[in-house]
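Hi W., the NDP complex you wanted:
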Amino acid sequence: MAINYKAELVGVLGYPVAENPTGVMQEAAFAALGLNWRYLTMEVKPENLADAIRGVRALGLRGINLTIPHKVAVMALLDDIAPDAKVIGAVNTVYRAGDRLIGTNTDGKGFLRGLRDEAEIDPKGRRVAVLGAGGAARAITFELAFAGASELVVINRSVERGQQLVEALRQDTSAAIEFVPWSSTYVVPQAIDVLVNATSIGLYPDVEALPDISLDQARSDLFVCDVIPNPPDTRLMQLARSRGLRTLNGLSMLVHQGTIGFELWTGQAAPEAVMKEALRKAFEMS
Ligand code: NDP
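Structure:
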């Protein structure tokens, strides 16, 4: 066999980025499949993003992830943007098509893959309530609407942000959309099939925080999801379980957005179990 010492490079650009765990799962996946690939966690200040993208091109990186604060700014620096990432208004994954850098958004797709594959729930025809209207909520609600969810309720503290998301959803999707300002306890109605916490409530180190909701009127087969990856077992997950409800934690979304990226970059099926275990261990140690 011909000798080939050349490593293929991918990575994440963010600022700050030191606590971003994505590299742990991607490196574990490369090792498991015996691929000579490296995932680099790179700190890039906003004013250096354009230079960094030139560097991505010059060094021939096979792809990148973008995290805070680059998900929107990167869009002007790429050769093309996938239609759904355009509508969502943010790019978290870039892959290469020849010399062209193509931006896409795998956050909502990762959530959906977890919902379908792990929870075995098809969003088609479902009524979903989503807490939050930030980047994660935006990606999740659009993908749910594209996947045929019949009704979406957006619950958000900031009325302006909530209404902006609701207007964008009404404009670009055919789901029935409702906005509920989150000014007091949100009582999850019986009609809701799936509840998603897409806020940052419960994220480490604020692990005791619980979204201000009541499950008293919720149906007994309500499915409860959280986007918080660290810790995966949030107070919300615990509350739902104590009511006998089924749950899906934020580790699922994180792993699946990573598996989609891995597949786009390498063209190979991602070793999902290896990636999830690597992340779980990393969070245990943090
Ligand atoms: P943003 O800052 O864009 O949005 C945060 C959202 O949380 C807003 O809707 C905000 O409401 C709401 N919020 C925050 N604190 C409170 C509070 N105390 N009470 C009520 N609402 C609150 O963040 P992102 O959307 O980018 O990220 C949200 C979470 O999703 C993060 O914890 C992140 O770790 C997680 N995430 C997980 C991923 C995964 O793969 N598992 C992927 C991407 C994100 P308001 O508008 O009123 O400020």
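The two ends are 41 Å apart (CA to CA).

W.
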